[in-house]
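Hey, quick one: can you model this chain's 3D structure?
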Amino acid sequence: MTGFYDFVVKDARGGDNPLSSYEGKVVLVVNTATGCGFTPQYAGLEELFEKYHDRGFEILDFPCDQFGHQAPGSNEEIVSFCTTTYGTTFPQMAKIEVNGRDENPVYTFLKRRQGGMLGGVIKWNFTKFLIDRSGHVVDRFAPTTTPEAIETRIVALLG
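Sure thing. Here's the predicted structure for all 159 residues.
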């Protein structure tokens, strides 16, 4: 059986990023887009990252262009937009698909663990999955749930 830490994903520069490097940390996985109504959530995500990173909190940003072509740029263009516009410093992965036959295996895993009433399908950008220090997917949040709204949950997992 595969666990969260068993995956290796591509970062925005095309390098391998083994999720085992996040073992023992609280991780928020988010599928994002640069031209979405929820794009301003990048600011809240960065605020959480800056506030809790030293306590073992990580954010993994997976840009996705499956919803309304709202992440049309290259990986480099997306990184540039995020760092310039929102000052993001958390890890950004290569653009992926989160649904369908070409979906990234990490998202297959996350959806199987926290499908909830959505039946597992990602409905839009900025769906968030929260992983505890043991690699268990403990929560799934809708795109409308702001980063600030999940801060208490993150703090509880950080201990």
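One thing worth noting: The CA atoms of residues 132 and 152 lie 14 Å apart.
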